TrEMBL record:
Alphabetical list of CDD domains matching this protein: FN3, Ig
Source species of the chain: Anopheles atroparvus (European mosquito)
All residue ranges annotated as the Ig-like domain in the record: 46-133, 142-223, 232-320
Domain of life where this protein originates: Eukaryota
Annotated signal sequence range: 1-21
Protein name: Ig-like domain-containing protein
Key words, A-Z: Immunoglobulin domain, Repeat, Signal
GO terms for MF: axon guidance receptor activity
Keyword Signal applies: yes
Gene Ontology cellular-component annotations: axon; neuronal cell body; plasma membrane
Pfam families: I-set, Ig_3
SMART domains: IG, IGc2, IGv
Amino acid sequence: MAGYVCHILLFFLFAQETAYGTSFGNSLSDTLLDPDFIDSPPMVQPKFTSRSQSIRAVIGDTITLPCEVENLGRNILLWRRGSAVVTAANLIITRDTRFKLLEGYSLQIKNVRPQDAGDYNCQIGDHDNRDLVHTVEILVPPSVRSNPETGHVTVRKGGTATLECKASGNPVPSISWTRKDSIHGSPHLSEGPTLTLENVNRQDSGTYRCYADNGIREPVFVDMQLIVLSPPEITVEKSWVHAGEGYEAQLVCTVHGDANPEVMWYQDSFLLHPNDRRTMDTRGEKHYLTIRNVRSSDFGNYSCVAENSLGRAKKYIEVSGRPGPAQFHSPMYSRYREMYNLTWSIESFPLIEEIRLLYRKLMMNESYQHPGRWHDIILNPPSTRSESFRHIMTYTIKGLDPNSVYETIVQAKNRYGWNEVSDIFQFYTLSTDMPNEDVEQTLGSTAYGNNYRALSGSGSPEGSLVLTALLLSLATTVRRLMGM
């Protein structure tokens, strides 16, 4: 390449001498002996009218390096990059087709690459070798890849998981980590190329996202999958399943475990197998045991057992013909001062034989809460059902104290026995400060739902009673003022 440049330069010098009818042998002596040479004015020196620049360009862009010169005369203008000559006069020396000379001697580079970064010299080929230097920096958008490249990391429960990603670009990208599949969105976890999770458990399994950003175009990311190998964990939808003879019962357990757990069903200590009345299905992590045309022999304790190479887990489910627990449907706030209408439902395939209702008053003030004694009431079983197995019952509790808090529980019995006692249900009676005709207008529907509870702030019995008293006092005050 250097020899090629020398030939070019010699060619230009020869052309110049020939044009003036001189030769290399006598051009200098003839010029000095010329009498007009002594009287001729000195030649004007060439100078750059462009200034040195630092140019930043994004990879793929087109850039122009300006080089404008006044009074170039017979001098040759060169573009150099290091020791390599890019152009000489109007000739492109480099074989790279991305380089082009524009009008004058400005140098254009198309589709710039990272290797195009560096100093470019526009040089006047005289005895002073004056240079105009442009510095080019190529900005590269970020790129990122996972380590390992598969993007999968597997670790045992209780171990330490290390996720790593590698980013490149110019400027050097910053790296951050988030949890992609978190139920709380995508929380920020850490900064840097490595994310370390210690003492991992099953909940740590999921997708983690590594972001790389250097301000050039959009941030990029790569996803990594963390798999935590753990012994099986089982949850059940219902630990108690109500069933009736001749009906269908379904038991469901959810098995968590990444080491391909095997799931088995037992009744008491006997391993169950599918038959004409019994099927076992799997849908994702959910496992189903369905018993059709239930018989009395099907009642009892069942267990869902899951086992993998790391351990074993078991959960129990009871199938029973006894009634299900009572579900209350009454509003929390009574429309009356001294009584309360209580409504509940109970699931039972056989007819209910006996109902037991217990209630008691809560003694409370700002500093303590003390329950009173239980009142026990035996009720006649309902004669109708709203559905084939759901019984709806209503009872009015009378003789209550105004402006008080009560709690109640319900239990039911059919031919298979008593059900579990229901959860405690609380209700509230009205204050004596308010006339009957104002009850509906003041409380209205807010005494029957969440709106009234939201107004109380805390939702506690004390807060509810305080708010009730305030509303009633306000209504009484308004009534008196209107009477005035």
